[in-house]
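Progress report, Aim 2. The chain analyzed during this reporting quarter is listed below.
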Amino acid sequence: MNSLKTLLAFTFLFIFSDSCRNTKTPEVIISAKFDNVIYHLARSYITSLPELDLDKFNENEKRIIELGKSLYYEKKLSANKTISCASCHDISKYGVDNMALPSGDLQQIGTRNTITVLNTFLYGEQNWDNKFKTVEEQAIGPIFAKWAMAMPDTIELLNRLDEDKYYRQAFDEAFPSSKSSITINNLKKAIGAFERILLTPSRFDEYLKGNLSVLTPKEKLGVYSFVMNCKSCHSSALVGGGFAIKYPIFGNHFDYSNIQNSDPGKYNVTKNHEDIFVFKVPQLRNIEKTFPYMHDGSVAKLEDAIRICSMAEANCRLNEQDIEYIAAFLKTLTGKIPYYALQDRKTFN
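Predicted structure tokens for the chain:
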């Protein structure tokens, strides 16, 4: 772990303004040389999100996406018809529900904090335990999970869709070459196609493309501190999410959250003892908005999450200035909500 203290002494000055007689506000100024260093360091570990052009899709692809959007908001996919994918993964809330643990179709409480669906297709494996390999596989998981949508079986699910005139026509039009269009495989394809357009480019992407003025000096110092301290887990376009790792490496979960660490993580899937307490490294895109944090939603504030992760994963206590700067940088990863994906908005013109 590297503190900014030593480097800052050589690279920027605190200029104090006398806007009030007895109040001095520090202004951070970075030298042009260090500004360039930070930029190239950032580009070495973080890449910009791919650009989305909704006009590039052909008519059949658009039909599949529109079907997937309808299914994403469809409450018939849950046992008692009370919740949909969007209930936990609310697009207007950056793809989460902002609850520590989600509430299911029977008001049952889930076991892990909701992971955002925004940008998620850029992951490899999905979920806190990397159970699913693609967004298509993941899309079907909660529908049959007892803690979530609790659909009893595939027969009930497909019958509900087949009884609906809209879905009979929509599936037939989206999958004209299928002998039977309403299938689990086509349902997964449709929801997955919709989730693959959920991109949230942010101010930081503009920075990565060369617009250095789009970030403040404080945010740039946060970029530097973040890369120096956090890059081993958080890199790539998603600023994380590429693999799973033991949490915590140092100490116990209770030490940081006052919650007993009873969730064995990836071990539930693999039954490999090396995977006990192994969890997916979350992406940090829109992290300002996807609170609370950690696999159990036990941490409410972004700054606390930064503080905890530095101790739990690297055995390092960051100073408060580093934490402040890193938090400032992470907020530049907040992108635009994909309003075209909201239920009451048109996806395509």
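The CA atoms of residues 310 and 316 lie 5 Å apart. The chain is about 40% helix and 5% strand. These observations will guide the mutagenesis work planned for the next reporting period.
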